[in-house]
Amino acid sequence: MSTLHAQPLDDTSFAPYGHVVEAGTAGRWINDGNAWRSDAGPLALAAEGGQPVLAVFRATARAAAGPWHELERHRLGTQSFLPLGTARCVLLVAQGDSAPDPATLAAFVTRPGQGWTLAAGTWHHALIVMDDVDVAVLERAADVSDCEIAHLAAPVQIVL
User: Fold this and answer.
1) What is the pTM of this model?
2) Which backbone phi and psi does 98 adopt, to 5 degrees?
3) Pairing, β 148-159 against β 2-5
4) Strand ranges (DSSP E) for the chain?
5) Quick check: helix, strand or coil at residue 144?
6) Is 118 exposed, middle or buried (0-12, 13-18, 19+ CB in 10 A)?
7) Cα–Cα distance between 115 and 40 in angstroms, integer?
8) What are phi and psi for residue 50, nearest 5 degrees?
9) What is the longest distance spanned by two Cα atoms in the chain?
10) Which of 14, 73, 98, 111 shows the greatest Cβ crowding within 10 Å of its Cβ?
11) Structure confidence by residue, pLDDT tens digits, 67-101
């Protein structure tokens, strides 16, 4: 079993896997200066006839340490996750062509109020939340599923 130390989610360290979505980051003032707009993009949702869909997932808390045994990816579209509460989330991600590359495995822990967008093709674990929370998810939907699952060669344990 391998062990990963989760690092705080930030734009620089998460860049190989996607980007952070957070109020107060890059953006602009709108509505006569009464609201700051931070975009969740760039997004990829239309490949091969895909359509954007906004869903709400009701996620149940689980032990962040794991062990975790599999990752999934969506090659044709991005996924943006926006927790609708103050729960912290743990992200387990990797890069790789046909399977997750163990050398690129990384773990991140969010602060309350942070969301994230996974780049198309990024291997990731299903939602890991440390408190029960609803999560808004903007993703690609199509007639044919775009979800590949890969089992890790060795389980991964995460240290917060």
Assistant:
1) 0.93
2) -90, -15
3) parallel
4) 2-5, 7-8, 18-22, 28-30, 35-37, 51-59, 68-73, 79-83, 89-94, 106-109, 114-118, 123-124, 128-129, 133-141, 148-159
5) coil
6) buried
7) 9
8) -70, 155
9) 54
10) 73
11) 999 999 999 999 999 999 999 999 999 999 999 99
Q: Which residues share a beta bridge with 115?
A: 21
Summarize pLDDT for 4-30 with one digit per residue, the tens: 999 999 999 999 999 998 876 777 888
Structure tokens at 123: 């291997």
pLDDT tens string 52-68: 999 999 999 999 999 99
Which 3 state secondary structure label does DSSP give 105? coil
Whats the size of the chain, residue-wise?
Answer: 160
Domains of the chain plus CATH, in order, are 2-159 (2.60.120.480)
